[in-house]
Design brief:
Aspartate Aminotransferase, domain 2; 7-stranded mixed beta sheet; 4-stranded antiparallel beta sheet; about 15% strand; pyridoxal phosphate; EC 2.6.1.1; PyrdxlP-dep_Trfase; PyrdxlP-dep_Trfase_small
């Protein structure tokens, strides 16, 4: 068996969700919302599967969706994309990441990874034969520094895998960090593969700044988006890849031999959804921010040290003030003894460099969040 995959442990998401199912715990670990998603978008998918085209659509994505993606990013992020040569549809953002890494990275190429990181990045880089070079971001701010980038970049750097907003940190990189990253990528002639799936789930008046808008990166970057995150339909697995034509034509070849294409009814529904009025996107952010605030206030009232959440479905706590030094052990106790599933953030680091941060998902109904807080209150009382 291929050791890249055979030697991987079961993902922490599956472990914690499995324990939640076995014990009846409240699952605040894996990042999916309770809400079924916008009804009009779901109805558009149902209508398209009953009365639309259900054979192979274009490998690059339906013209309707590619045009909708380009129009959406022009409207929200000021990007000027040619839907015919700079936009591709994939079966989810993870497939988009896989195709981009396999299409760009050759054996022996160095790839800069920022940890904490989505758990697919590292095995995909290794599958492509890439050599990972890590930049370890420290809580609570998870900022880039010139010193850390200088240690990671080298003349052998081929690509950078970047995530903004950053999961699991729930932070958004400020403009000065983005400018610093762009400078290093230009200096080292590196391509940025930018995972921007949380681009719409940002709070407190923030606006996402795409990698394609950074100085000097328009011709050396890949932007990846996700309909599942935009519409809270995580099971749909519809991703977007945006890049300059000379990059996208290569990524299209790797996509061709991974999934080839994506369900046409979902593409039709996503095209419809991307054209929704501003009120939908603003309301979605407002609703998630309200849940974030409700859960954050509850955590703080129990005495937890909360790291502020700027975006995503997540909020983190620092368990060091509780005298805890092992986030994995803490999360196991939490689910087995107190009935709440959370995620140890050390699982997002290649070697568990940070072991004092625990992630919760707040994209849940009020009753679920309140029940979770009630159980956490009992855990706090018992610890005291």
């Amino acid at each position: 068996m291929n050791p890249i995959f055979a030697n991987l442990p079961t993902t922490v998401f599956e472990v914690m969700s499995g324990l939640a199912r076995e014990t009846g715990a409240i699952n605040l670990g894996q990042g999916f919302p309770d809400d079924p998603g916008p009804e009009d978008v779901r109805r558009a998918a149902a209508e398209a599967v009953l009365n639309g085209y259900n054979q192979y659509p274009s490998m690059m994505g339906t013209p309707e969706l590619r045009s909708a993606v380009a129009a959406h990013y022009r409207r929200w992020q000021g990007l000027d994309l040619d839907p015919n040569t700079e936009v591709m549809v994939t079966s989810g953002a993870t497939e988009a990441l896989a195709g981009a890494i396999l299409g760009i990275v050759e054996p022996g190429d160095e790839v800069v990874l920022f940890e904490p990181m989505y758990d697919a990045y590292l095995p995909l880089v290794r599958l492509a034969g890439g050599v990972p070079r890590f930049v370890t971001l420290e809580p609570p701010h998870f900022r880039l520094t010139e010193e850390a980038l200088a240690r990671a970049f080298s003349p052998r750097t081929k690509a950078v895998v970047f995530n903004n907003p950053l999961n699991p940190a729930a932070t958004i990189f400020p403009d000065e960090d983005l400018a610093l990253l762009a400078e290093f990528c230009r200096r080292h002639d590196a391509i940025v593969i930018s995972d921007e799936v949380w681009e719409h789930v940002v709070f407190d008046g923030r606006r996402h700044r795409p990698v394609l808008a950074l100085d000097g990166l328009r011709e050396r970057a890949v932007k990846i988006g996700s309909a599942g995150k935009i519409f809270s339909l995580t099971g749909w697995k519809v991703g977007f890849v945006c890049a300059a034509p000379h990059i996208l034509k290569v990524l299209a070849k790797s996509h061709q031999f991974l999934t080839f294409t994506t369900a046409p009814n979902l593409q039709a529904a996503v095209a419809y959804g991307l054209g929704k009025e501003d009120a939908y996107f603003e309301g979605m952010r407002r609703d998630f921010a309200r849940s974030r605030d409700r859960f954050t206030e509850g955590l703080r009232s129990l005495g937890f040290d909360v790291i502020p959440s700027q975006g995503t479905y997540f909020v983190n706590i620092d368990i060091a003030p509780l005298g805890e030094t092992d986030d994995v052990a803490f999360c196991r106790r939490l689910v087995l003894e107190h009935g709440v599933a959370a995620i140890p953030v050390s699982a997002f680091y290649a070697e568990g460099a940070v072991r004092n941060v625990v992630r919760f998902c707040f994209a849940k109904k009020d009753a679920t969040l309140d029940a979770g807080l009630e159980r956490l209150a009992r855990a706090v009382r018992r610890a005291a």
